[in-house]
Design a protein that fits this description.
Length: 213
Amino acid sequence: MRIFTKKLPHPDLPAEEKAQLLQNSEYQEMMVESTFMYLTLDLPTAPLYKDEKEQLIIPQVPLFSILAKFNGATEKEYKTYKENFLKRFQLTKLPPYLIFCIKRFTKNNFFVEKNPTIVNFPITNVDLREYLSEEVQAAHTNTTYDLIANIVHDGKPSEGSYRIHVLHHGTGKWYELQDLQVTDILPQMITLSEAYIQIWKRREEDETNQQGA
């Protein structure tokens, strides 16, 4: 993965001083390449408002909207105690398996908050070609992934529970596991859950051909 980082001047500085600082090498964009074990997907801030029936509305966001973080163009501001940075990310390689960690939990000095936003995602045919740098796209014949496992968090951060959705490769059926209970589940029900961690498998050449047949 390529990580592009650009330091920002302090927001309270006068405009002229900011412009001068941006000319310094310290404030020019730098690029580093880094390996990764999983991709963290940031959820938009959840607006908690009620409808006309006084019921809380749970917001939804498409998977491809939060994957845009890795398209090489989307910038996000990161703040530290002393400095602010703009960062953008771009994938340079697609492994056989990808792990997505949907960032639902935010921790501060007092408590942990959970973002309940539902992520709308397809179970199959997620093509990640556009998130690769142009020069390495040609080296990746297969860039399509299918979901094989989905970990869900239900309830409050401190009192919640976990469920796991697993694809049985031999039968193509999905199962839900919670503690010692195993039940069948329809694929369309998986997409309604508060997904937390997902595992995706890249299609091989023969699998892609079978899907297109």
